Amino acid sequence: MRFERRTAGVLAVVIVPGLAGCAASVPPSTGKEHAAPSSHVHAIVADPSGDGFLLGTHDGIFAASAEGVLGARVSRFAFDAMGLAATDGALLASGHPGSGTPAEFGAPNLGVIRSTDGGTEWESVAYPGEKDFHALASTPDGVVLGMTSDSIELLISRDNGSTWSATGTSMMTAGIAVDATGRVIAATQEGLQVSTNDGATFAPWVDAPVVYGLSASPDHQRVVGVDAKERIWVTSAGAESWTEVGSVHGSLQAITIANDGGILVADDSGTTFLPAAGLRIGIPKGGTLLYTRITP
Predict the structure, then answer these.
(1) In angstroms, what CA-CA distances link 2 with 216, 244, 263?
(2) How confident is the model over 195-211, as pLDDT tens digits?
(3) Strand ranges for 67-221 from DSSP E
(4) CA gap 95, 90 in Å, rounded
(5) pTM higher than 0.70 for the full model?
(6) In the chain, what is the greatest distance between 2 CA atoms, to the nearest angstrom?
């Protein structure tokens, strides 16, 4: 039996007495009956200027609170943000122009654009009109890695996105993340690959789940991903294993994880926040935490 509670913009927690033995088998999940509706989301990052999140969507950059409550568009103009990364106090994005996008950014692809005010104003810094980065990820020391939609060559920038060069690695990847030890983790069809030299060479991560949609927390201490069976997995910096902490509903659009372990997910059901407290932690004696969510 499934119990649900809907609330207006607050955390919904359901405790069912007498079901403690089921706790491990019912991890928190997203779902259309409780998620907030949203434009298609391509990427999510923690807001470098605040405590919430920024969502790269088909219609520009949108804000979400630290509890996952969706807010207004923060970018002055609309654009299709296919890639989004936070680094050195700035935001880097890529994708395609939209309504109001400055003509000098180019078309049909934006190349790399940069914001230093939290995503409101943007400037073109590389490849205007040429490239569309579907994967962007920053390292703890400010290096940025990226992969474009027209190539399998992994690129690297050491000057906040202004200039790029090849790392020497070619691969098809569905996501890149970097942990606090500097490990570059890439999601491929063959499984996770790991690099310890800024992406110059990779080796398989043996026994790791086959996940995609990788994202690191702002402090790079946690990395999150989702597998083909809709399960959410988390690992920590330098760890050799992953932990299953929840599930998504249908196809994943984007996912990220906060420093405290809270997870913001955009999937077929909309946008859902899974607080760290809901990830099988703090289940009271004699009860089962069936799910914790933010609902509109």
Answers:
(1) 32, 21, 22
(2) 999 999 999 999 999 99
(3) 70-73, 79-87, 90-97, 112-115, 123-126, 133-138, 144-148, 153-157, 165-170, 176-178, 184-188, 191-195, 203-204, 211-216
(4) 17
(5) yes
(6) 62
